[in-house]
Specification:
Layout lengths: L21 H10 L1 H21 L4 E9 L22 H8 L2 H11 L3 E5 L6 H6 L6 E8 L8 E7 L2 E5 L5 E6 L3 E4 L2 E9 L5 E6 L2 H11 E5 L6 E8 L2 H59 L6 H28 L7 H25 L3 H35 L5 E9 L8 H26 L6 H6 L4 E6 L2 H15 L9 H4 L4 H16 L7 E5 L7 H14 L4 E5 L7 H4 L8 H6 L16 E2 L5 E4 L8 H5 L2 H13 L2 E5 L8 H6 L4 E7 L5 H13 L6 E7 L3 H7 L12
Parallel strand pairs: 13-20, 14-18, 14-19, 15-17, 15-18, 19-20
Antiparallel strand pairs: 1-11, 1-12, 2-9, 3-8, 4-5, 4-9, 5-6, 7-8, 10-11, 16-17
Helix pairs in contact: 1-23, 2-11, 4-6, 4-7, 7-10, 8-9, 8-10, 15-16
Amino acid sequence: MQQNQSPAPVVNNKRDDDEIDLGRLFGLLIDHKWLIAVITLSFMVVGVVYAMLATPIYQADALLQVEKKSSGIPALGEMADMFATESEASTEIEIMKSRMVIGTVVDQLKLTNSVTPNYMPLIGEFLARRSEVRDQVVIESFNVPNSQLGQALTLEFDGTGFTLFDSEGEQALSGQIGTLAASGEWELHISDAVTENTSDFTLVKRTRLSAISDIQKLLSVAERGRQTGILTASIQHPNRDFSRNVLNAVAQEYMLQNIRRNAAEAENSLDFLQRQIPTIRDNLNAAEEKLNAYRLQSQSVDLTLETQGLLEQVVEIEKRINDLTLKEAEISRLYTREHPTYQALIEQKANLLADQKRLADQVQNLPETQQQVLRFARDVEVNQEIYLQLLNRVQELNVLKAGTVGNVRIVDTAETNPVPVAPKKALIVVLATMLGGITAVGLVFVKAAFNRGIERSEQLEDEGVTVYATIPKSDIQESMDARLMKRTKRKDSAQIDLLAKVDPTDLAIEALRGLRTSLHFAMLEARNNVIMISGPSPGVGKSFVTANLAAVLAQSGKRVLLIDGDIRRGYLHSILHTENNFGLADILASESKNDDSHVEYKSNIESGYVKNLDFISRGTSAPNPAELLMHPRMAQLMQDVQKDYDYVLIDTPPILAVTDAAIVGGYAGTSLLVARFGQTPSREIVHTIRRFAQNGVEIRGAILNGVERKASGYYGYGYNYQYGYTYKS
């Protein structure tokens, strides 16, 4: 087998260009505009469907007012202003959302029982919402074993009867609507049920704490404005009646607990005063008895004007001291002795005690009889004042307790907005459309980033590979290939027409005519007229280029022989409308020959489809194609056909798949590679050339096949086809 001289090394002149080409990115978007449009439209349709089928969420809201209040010590009288405080909105919000309030609502509305209708997937709930009757189950009582708490149970209705299944699907109990059904720890009493759209429901018995937690998550409370005392409460839920009823119950319970709290303050003060009244009354009686006894003993001693004045002053101070003592008892329950309010009361009491001591010194200067009468009269007056004051306070607290209204009022009761607050259909559609567009654009850019296929002949030239021709994509050929694939799948007679014969004016054929001219000059220095055409991988269009190039050469008046060198899977006989009865494999495997220096092949040549074009098919499939191609008969065949034809073209299988092309390349004077536009990476071509070089085969250049006009190439590089023709992208 003849071998070529050592091939020239591939020169890598690849340019290092890391700049972002905005023009090419814009061109990529134009190239894939239909893909982007389809993906965006698909996302938009999904958004519309979701917006239509999604469960609407309704919001109920209520308005409450929290008025400023004092510290809640009615018994302090005028001094109550000293202890006045304002109710912080944040405190009231936390109280409203507390377990104390929510827990009572859960108990009142029996929210530990959860019933959910089971509808057809996807559209069942959508259709049920448009029904005039809403499916619901009213439960009076429901108890389950502890192991079934929080588990999804199945409730099925059959007329007025029902059956309850546990979480394992086993029947737990059955009964009739309106009648209590019980079995062991199971107990269920359904007072009413509407099963217009479904007879299956999911029933869950939740723990009280979990029900409270769920309501706390649903309840939203905020102050409107700053320090306005106006609270806005809202609940969002798919069931508009549920949101309204729960929010009304929460607001009502919050107001009632506030009233109970204020009434409790009055009750505490009343209890304290009632405990003091008996003691003060006993003190008053004892003081009166002492005064009367001393008067009898002293035979009705009257007080002088000076002594009467001292008595009045002493009584007033004593009354004020006792009043402060009562207040100190109240304050001691609220503050420590170090609190400024407590310290102010102590200071005031100390001043009164100092005045009391001064008056006591004046009393010491009076006669003994006057002093005793003054003391007894003082005790009577002081205790009488205190006793009357306590009685008045008790009456005041009784009135206050009876008329307690609290400092919270419901301004607006809960009402549900008829328009759902979610989902926001327009926003969902817009966001879905935007997401679709972003996804489509991202997909295009990612695909472009991972697609290393050749899109410019300069990419090969940068790798040091000469490009002999760029063959535009042919729509006619593409349709014929599609028909061939369909026939092959149906196992029909698979034949397609030769493009050079069907449409000789096609731009792909025009490009092959340009290749014909280039080959004429390139082969002047070739050692023979055998041309091998191969490629790195399947699907690049080797057979298309080889068959149509052979036809173009034959149409120029040259005698051309086309050989299907792909003994494994060649299909050139389908393109040239011949039968694959006896071909190359049979010629090489045949042991009969006329003489030692000649291979009989002419009897196996097919001709007539294209004038001046003869064809040898691949022949019978052989288990050892590589060994057949290396047989001396192959070398002898090449020598014979070189003399009989102007051009001999051999189509070979891809070099990266099998080694057949490397063997055939040893017989060829000119070897060319076919690369597919947008599919074959430039590095794959370089690797292919090196693979051939390892086998002593020199690749003269490459043919870029299936070139498409793309905006990315146009905007990025100003690339266009010859003849000024605009090709379909």
